[in-house]
Amino acid sequence: MSLRVAAVVTVYYPKSHADVIVTKFMKGWSTDQGFFEPEVRLVSMYLDHVLESDIGMDLAHEYGVPIYPSIRSALHAGSDKLDVDAVLLIGEHGDYPWNERQRHMYPRRYFFEQIAGVFAESGRSVPLFSDKHFAYDFRDALWMWNRAADLNIPLMAGSSLPLSWRDPWLEHEKE
Q1: Which residues of the chain have pLDDT under 50?
Q2: Cβ(16)–Cβ(97) under 8 Å?
Q3: Which of 28, 51, 52, 147 matches a 20 to 30 Å C-alpha distance to 12?
């Protein structure tokens, strides 16, 4: 049985971070070494905004991934409790305000608070990948880090760029 993954996404349009990451969890991806099928199963998705250019709704329908109206219900995946083995948090892109320091106020902490709330309520945590950095504000990022530590959440944050095509091709020297 493959691992069950939930995606929590701000917006999902062509070449967005959701497309670069979540689409691969549904379709797989091509590399110079061949095509790789997903080894996990995307079982639920929450979309904060559905734009005119959205592709997430159609892809989810095509691959049988239910879209839920809340983060909590996406993590329950049709159950009455936490029913996924991992969570993808992609809080990048979308019509969100800018603060006085010209930082885009993506709702990463807000999404994370809800995810952590489901973990706390269930008495167990599952691995969480947060695309990009934790938050636009250090205090929010520190709060997220501390909350993850309190709940023993296996947590990783980083960029989806390693999964994108490179033109021109770049390969780093291996040790």
Answers
A1: none
A2: no
A3: 147
| Rounded CA separation 99/137 (Å) | 10
Q: What domains sit in the chain, N to C, each tagged with a CATH number? A: 3-163 (3.40.50.720)
Region of residue 64 (left: phi > 0; alpha: psi -120 to 50; beta: else):
left
Find the distance separating the first CA and the last CA of the chain, reported in whole Å. Answer: 35
Tell me which amino acid residue 27 is: K
Tell me if 156 sits within 8 A of 130, measured CB to CB: yes
Neighbours of 119 (CB within 10 A): 21
Helix (H, G, I), strand (E, B) or coil at 166: coil
- At residue 159, the pLDDT reads 75
What DSSP string runs through 117-157? HHHHHHT----EEEES-S-SSHHHHHHHHHHHHHTT--EEE
The closest alpha carbon to 41, from 19, 59, 24, 55, belongs to 24
137, amino acid identity:
D
Geometric angle at alpha carbon 123, from 119 and 126, rounded to 5°: 45
- Distance (Å, rounded) from C-alpha 12 to C-alpha 54? 5
Note the pTM of the prediction, 2 decimals: 0.88
Q: β-pairing, 29-31 with 34-36?
A: antiparallel
pLDDT of residue 166: 61
Q: What is the pLDDT of residue 31?
A: 78
Cα(11)–Cα(13) distance, integer angstroms = 7
